[in-house]
DNA sequence: TAGATGACTATACGATCGTATCTTTTTATG
DNA sequence: CATAAAAAGATACGATCGTATAGTCATCTA
């Protein structure tokens, strides 16, 4: 009979219509982020969510719809979790010290390691034009780019970042941080060191901040 | 009857055993880089190479073998093409000027835009552990990482790059450069500007070098 | 209590996938 | 020209894919 523990009639109310529905969404986000759109099947997602394949197709009529909803779910999770990482580095409280940039970068990197889904989902669709990419651009990326640029410009106004082209700087910083997470499985195998660890992250951020605040050793003897 | 124009008996010699074989390899590299391993099928590759599906399976017995050989092919192309981009920036001819770092970065970025296959193939397999990733690590990435680190250290010895952790700096530079290529389709849609253009690349490299050589605007008034 | 609604399940269809086997054509060599 | 090997093509198989449809069961409402 198995255990019928988490029965929970839910009386149809709650936030999400069904508890199993959001469990499927979470599993779908994991599988999509890991295997990509083409490599993902209803069967795999159903297995990961421990439900029948028919149920997946019942809640989300098509694979495309399921993908869209799981993307929405991931971005929502991101927007809920990210502020908690950034609140201790608030840029607009007048406390201008350079240490804040280090903390900002570190928190973003740590967040990316803790929630790799949205980065992986982004890269899964980024490299190749497709209707899905167009949808993501209109739905999320335009907004994300604008927000990122605003953060950079705010930091620049407070002399926390060098006053170069904000969009370029956003790309360079995003690249330097996100790249580390995306090639982490490679780095781990090549270097024999887990990139997702306090000391590795601290060292990496330290190097990055050292560059951002003017590389001393090259400016010193020139 | 169609056109039997490119008949070319090849007399079996040439470099590759068959001319159609390498045509399949090139097509396979394209499709694998674009769609990933799971999203790629024999049929798609055959169609891209304008041959029958059976022929693909004849030359490369399995999908895994075809993938491996196409990876080898791409890395070989890369190693043949890359020196032509770097030769005009040779680091070890005693000509130590800072302009050389800019040229080095620019050439690497330009090369990546011209030959996006190897970057995309890398990212296709990088984010998720798999037997294919293990194989790539042992076959290519360990060597690539070592070479990259050596280049960084050489530049550091000549005071062309700040003397921070070489592996971290390699990751930061790789990330900043490769990220741009990987999210180019996104950037193009969001910014309405093609990242693969002289002026965009120049501007981006300029910003990057500005950081590498000590951000002036922040060090100036501190 | 009868009916309607929503959550969930079972099953089947057509297409495509990777692979295996077989036949035909082309090429090289005696 | 004869013959063997290699290249190229044709076909079929089991499996899995996305999707469609019909059915079961519990809950809610009139």
From TrEMBL, chains A, B:
Residues 41-60 bind DNA. This is HTH tetR-type domain-containing protein. Keywords: DNA-binding. InterPro entries: Homeodomain-like_sf, HTH-type_TetR-like_transc_reg, HTH_TetR, Tet_transcr_reg_TetR-rel_C_sf. GO terms for molecular function: DNA binding. The lineage of its organism: Bacteria, Pseudomonadati, Pseudomonadota, Gammaproteobacteria, Cellvibrionales. It comes from Zhongshania marina. Pfam families: TetR_N. Residues 1-20 are annotated as: Disordered. It comes from the Bacteria. Residues 18-78 form the HTH tetR-type domain.
């Amino acid at each position: 009979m198995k255990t019928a523990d988490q029965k929970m009639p839910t009386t149809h109310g709650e936030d999400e219509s069904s508890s199993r529905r959001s469990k499927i969404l979470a599993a779908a986000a994991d599988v999509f982020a890991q295997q990509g759109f083409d490599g993902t099947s209803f069967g795999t997602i159903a297995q990961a969510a421990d439900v029948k394949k028919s149920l997946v197709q019942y809640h989300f009529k098509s694979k495309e719809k399921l993908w869209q909803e799981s993307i929405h779910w991931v971005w929502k999770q991101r927007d809920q979790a990210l502020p908690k990482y950034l609140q201790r580095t608030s840029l607009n409280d007048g406390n201008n010290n350079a240490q804040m940039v280090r903390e900002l970068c570190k928190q973003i990197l740590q967040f990316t390691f803790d929630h790799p889904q949205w980065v992986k989902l982004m890269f899964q669709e980024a490299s190749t034009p497709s209707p899905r990419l167009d949808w993501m651009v209109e739905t999320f990326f335009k907004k994300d780019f604008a927000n990122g640029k605003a953060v950079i410009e705010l930091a620049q106004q407070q002399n926390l970042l060098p006053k170069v082209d904000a969009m370029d700087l956003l790309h360079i910083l995003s690249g330097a941080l996100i790249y580390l997470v995306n090639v982490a499985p490679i780095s781990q195998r090549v270097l024999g060191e887990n990139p997702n660890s306090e000391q590795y992250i601290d060292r990496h951020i330290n190097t990055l901040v050292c560059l951002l605040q003017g590389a001393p050793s090259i400016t010193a003897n020139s």
